[in-house]
Every structure is written in structure tokens, then in C-alpha cells.
Amino acid sequence: MQRMIPKKPIAALFWSIVAALIVPVCECAIIPVVRRLIIKGVPIHAGVVLLVTAPILNIIVFGSTYYAFQKNPEIIYGRVIICILTAIIVGAFVYIFCRKDIIKENANEHNHTQHDHFSSLSHKLTHLINHITDEFFMVGKYFIIGAVFASVFQVCVDRTILAELGNSQIQGTVLMMGIAYILSLCSSADAFVAASFSHSFLPGSILGFLVFGPMLDLKNTLIMMSCFKWRFVFIYILLVFLVVLSLCLLAGVWISRGGL
Question: What is the pLDDT along the chain (260 residues), one digit of tens a residue?
Fold first, then answer.
């Protein structure tokens, strides 16, 4: 992955999108992967592009989206197009304004990696197990906390209340993005949940749910805060929210006028 992504900033943006196609992992698992790649020398803005695109641009998610929205091709292709545009915009912004180190230090990780170049096979296997253990306990606790809050929301909130706001383009899109954030669904299955809202919300709102959820949700926000510095996490959340909201509103208007 490090050799695949070039150092030139513009080329790195587009090659990172290509690289996302071979990293079909969910929005939570991609965070420690990107963190590790940045530590190994991948440019920060290229890592951010992977964060944005990997949970959506893979054959599993495309297949589930196609199955759930066979009669709505604008949703299928809109999800991919908005994802790519968001990745380019966010990646370019991060390259221009966020060049400082964004990684939180991990003493155990430093101890595991500092002798990797001189290790035998048995030592490398030991380091591998140590890395797996560290990542599991670092990510797992936040995953459990996020899952608890998401479960409470799914059980306690009445969908009929949400449907009342579905006819508003702006309010509906913001609401669906908020629902996606709280529900914290896996990107390989969220299309089926989005399909259940399709009769109550406009296409732009559905796209907001399908695009924003895999990029940002409650679980991966907690995981990001454990991996990256809080200033970067805040900028990333704000930027992704504004870009996705703007693109989904534009897509909603275009679709309503007969686009796609």
C-alpha cells in the first residue's frame, strides 16, 4: 500500500481511491489500518481518502446497495459518485491545511515496531500477535460503547416521528445523516435499512444516510479519538458533514429534476 500510493499530492488522491477498492473493510476497521499506514509513511491526505472511501468503494457494499435499490439506480450510482467527490474535496483540504502530525502516540506500539527490521520470522510472528492484541483492546472497547448507544436508539425511537420530517430536503437530509451516525450500521448492510426509509424520505436524504454513515458514526468517532489527535478529529467530522450535506442536497435537486 505504501509503495502503491505516490508522494505527489494530486496523484496520491486518486491512487488512494484505487487503493480503497482492495481494502474492503468497514468504517471502524479502516481507522487502525490508516493509522498504521500513516505511521509507515503514507501521506496524511492519502490516508484520509482511504478513511472516506474504503467503507463504500468495494464490491460487497456495491452489491448490497444494488440489491436494495434495484429500481432506483440514482441511489446506487449517486452513493459512489458522492463518495468519490467527498474524498477528493476532503483529501485536498487536509493536504492544504493539516500537514502536521495527527497520530496519537502509543508507547506499546513503538516498542513493538522499533526492531521490526532486524527480527527473525518467530519474532515477527510475536510482533504480529502483539499488534493484534493492542488493536483489539484499543478498538474493541469503543466499539462496544458505540454499539450500546446505537442499540438504545434503535429500540426507543419511533420511526413514525422521523417520517414527519421526511418531505423536507434540508431537514430530511440532516435527520437521515444524524440517524446514520447514531445507528452506526455496517456499510455492507445499511442499504437495506435505508431502503425501509425510502417511502418516507427524499432521494437526497437517503443518499445522506448511505454516504455519511460509512464515513462517520458513533462507534468510529470514538475509535478515531483514540487513534488521532482531537483537533484533527474535529476538523474531519466538520468537513465531512458539510461536504456530504452539500453534495447530497445538490444530488437531491438534480434527481428531482430528472437527473440520472
Answer: 667 777 788 888 888 888 888 776 777 778 888 888 888 888 899 999 999 999 999 888 899 899 999 989 999 999 999 999 999 999 999 998 876 788 877 644 544 444 444 557 777 788 778 777 776 766 566 567 656 765 676 677 666 666 666 678 898 899 899 989 988 888 888 888 888 888 778 999 999 999 999 999 888 898 898 889 988 999 999 999 999 999 999 999 999 887 65
Question: How far is 82 from 95, CA to CA, in rounded Å?
Answer: 20
- The Cα 21–Cα 13 span in angstroms is 14
CB atoms within 10 A of CB 152: 11
Enter the pTM of the model. Answer: 0.80
Give the Å distances, CA to CA, from 108 to 39, 120, 127: 14, 20, 11
Residue type at 68 in one-letter notation:
A
List 228's β-bridge partners, or say none. 103
Please say whether the beta carbons of 81 and 207 come within 8 A.
no
